[in-house]
Amino acid sequence: MIECLKTTLVGTDLLTQPITTPEPGCWINVVSPDSNDRDWLLNQVDIAPEFVRSAFDDEESSHIDYDDDANQTLIIVDCPFVEDASEAEDPDIVQYDTHPLSFIFLPEKDMLVTVSLRENAIVSQFASGHGVRRMNTNQRTRLFLQIFLRISQRYVIYLRNIDRQFNRIEASLRRDLRNSELIKMLGFEKSLVYFSTSLKADEATLTKVSSGRAVRLYEDDRDLLDDVFIELRQAIEMSAIYTNILDGTMDTFASVISNNLNITMRTLTIITLVLAIPTMVFSFYGMNVSDLPAADTFAFPIICALIGCGIAAIFFWRSRLFK
Q1: Disulfide: which of 45, 88, 218, 260 matches 95 by Cβ 3.0-4.6 Å?
Q2: How many CB atoms within 10 Å of residue 60?
Q3: So where does this one cross the membrane (predicted)?
């Protein structure tokens, strides 16, 4: 789907409305594109073919690329999203991942093109104008930074959601160690790895943007750029903290499981040793051994076996092997 939007001044207010054909000062929003959309971007907007290939690659990581011949700049940013319940390993646990969001700057045509390979809630908010203030498609750099700021804030929101889910699962594991809960913890770890990797790549991309060589920065954009850096670094710190906490918690639960297994094996070993005493006593009476006391009755060997079991049990108990 391709949507062209342009901001115009109506009285004293800025109004962003859809337009039918691209024109200078517009924003071209491409969502879930197909082959026809690819051809349209190549033929109608004259975007560099290598930029279109990169924008349509779901495995592309965050980076900046510049085409001197076409005078175009490609900026790819990793954007967080919530996995569909059908794709998640556990429908009861919200899983997170990242996908590339491409920004293509066309200064000669005074246009900005965004390409999202799947529905993007942040881009949809800007396209619809809901909850967005002072959006102006004529200011390409500012619009890019505004979207980048929302992306950074979305990282922070999702990280807090992960922390809340993690605390809930941890409390459940303290009551009862279950495999299903441990698998959910692994899902959190996977989400944090995706976020940590993408956030570091986004920070490197934003650092290059701040130099002003990739895209032109205006004086009014500096404060907004600083806000993006603050949110992005906060998300990076949160991701690192939650990852360390999760790793420590998983190691602790692994130690608890190992300790429980050792206790179980020790208990079974003690029981086996205690039960072996009656077997040893009756084995003597089952052999052709002469002059055994009270060989004509079962009372004596039974008493000997019980006494032996009792002595062994008292020994193991006093040696704290049952603790």
Answers
A1: 88
A2: 17
A3: 267-286, 298-317
